[in-house]
Amino acid sequence: MTLDTIAAISTAVGEGGIAVIRVSGPDAITESAKLFRSKSNIVDAPSHTVHYGHIVNPDDGEIVEEILLTIMRGPRSFTAEDVVELSTHGGVIAVKRVLALLLRQGSIRIAEPGEFTKRAFLNGRIDLTQAEAVIDLIRSKSDRAFTVAMKQAEGALSRKVKTLRHQLVELLAHIEVNIDYPEHDVTELTNQFILEKSRQACAEIDRLLKTAEEGKILREGIVTAIVGRPNVGKSSLLNALVQENKAIVTDIPGTTRDVIEEYITLGGIPLRLLDTAGIRETTDVVERIGVERSRTALEQADLILFVLNGNEPLHEDDRKLMEQLKGRPVIVLLNKSDLPSKLDTAELADFYTEESIVRMSVLNETGLDRLERVIRDMFFGGELESADLTYVSNVRHITLLHDARRSLTDAMEAIDNGIPIDIVQIDVRTAWEQLGEMIGDSVAESLIDQIFSQFCLGK
């Protein structure tokens, strides 16, 4: 596929050791050569070579920047096109000056968000699941999430989907033979073949969907709200988990006035922590706004860490919160366990099991190991699956797998109900097309644009 030539800054804007500008397209090498002064002629240079030189303003010959220029000729590049990467000094000014000169070349334009990865997809170097894994790599919040995304970028999920589609193609071919040669009277055998192959495909889809909940957690993190009445240690808990003083801690109730958000990894489990304002009745206008925001965060949370002060008797505000949290996934944290216990845990028995109660001291940072184990039990059945497992974490993929399974179920039900085989064929073909939409074999251009618009500029 022939496209125009694009350029963009591929590294984060700001101070750093180096910055990289990526150029991709048919004129990437020749247009870059017009600005590059070096002892070597990069127009004829072999692929995957690095060249030292300077970027020169063609108007007056002024040296603009000292760079390293890397050449990767298509199709042996990320986009499968000719690619040039210019490594400049880090910093906003240097990289912008070089990019501005490149864009002054008539055949180079600024890249759209995700356009380099989009070209890799359009040029057949990667499929759509691999392309989507690129953004998961960038947004990974934990080592395990990164590993899952890397496996998908390498094609682990694609291979499973392609195997499934191949099985359905064989099934469709068998059905076609039955439709084209009805005189052989093999309908009963064909029906049994369809049922067997459809059950096998459904079983494989079920195996993939079984990983969906854990995969989504690894990809997005568990939205975790830290709640409790004022001054029970919520902000201190956040600081202990983050290992940084992100929240102001004082003895004054109502210090936290807004929801503070932080990402952490606890024993390989990514958590999106929301430290909320203490929930209580108050006449303070600003604190009341914080309390309302806390209630909103509470509704959005996948997990609630309910902090109680173990050094005080249960407060009426604690009891009100316990009522509000009924039916929600809650872990009770009895803070200040380093002090004499004054809270009667028997009052908690009507709401929480002993397994969901963690005694801890945020001050001494004890009890965090126990908290990790309880979260692991609650969301992963005690332990994370093997790192070799192919997880499904993308909502689009999960939806299409459910749709494909439903189509195969419709096909099996149609056979049981004596529906003609040419109607059954429609359901099987629909499942095949839905799986194809996962990897991009059959997908609307508008959806492709929507997917790649989520990428950052330069990727």
Task: List the main descriptive attributes of the protein structure presented here.
nucleotide-binding, Gyrase A, domain 2, Four Helix Bundle (Hemerythrin (Met), subunit A), seven-stranded mixed sheet, six-stranded mixed sheet, 15 helices, P-loop_NTPase, Rossmann fold, MnmE_dom2, single chain, 459 residues, 3 domains, alpha/beta
Describe the 3D structure.
With 459 residues, this protein is of the alpha/beta class. The chain folds into 3 domains: 5-125, Gyrase A, domain 2 (2-Layer Sandwich), CATH 3.30.1360.120; 130-211 and 392-440, tRNA modification GTPase MnmE domain 2 (Four Helix Bundle (Hemerythrin (Met), subunit A)); 218-380, P-loop containing nucleotide triphosphate hydrolases (Rossmann fold), CATH 3.40.50. It is 44% helix and 17% strand. It has a 7-stranded mixed β-sheet with strand order 3-4-5-6-2-1-7. It has a 6-stranded mixed β-sheet with strand order 9-10-8-11-12-13, with helices on both faces. The protein starts with a strand and ends in a 7-residue tail after the last helix. The model is unreliable at 245-258 (pLDDT under 50). Residues 221-380 form the TrmE-type G domain. Belongs to the TRAFAC class TrmE-Era-EngA-EngB-Septin-like GTPase superfamily. TrmE GTPase family. It comes from Paenibacillus spongiae. Mg(2+) binds at residues 235, 256.
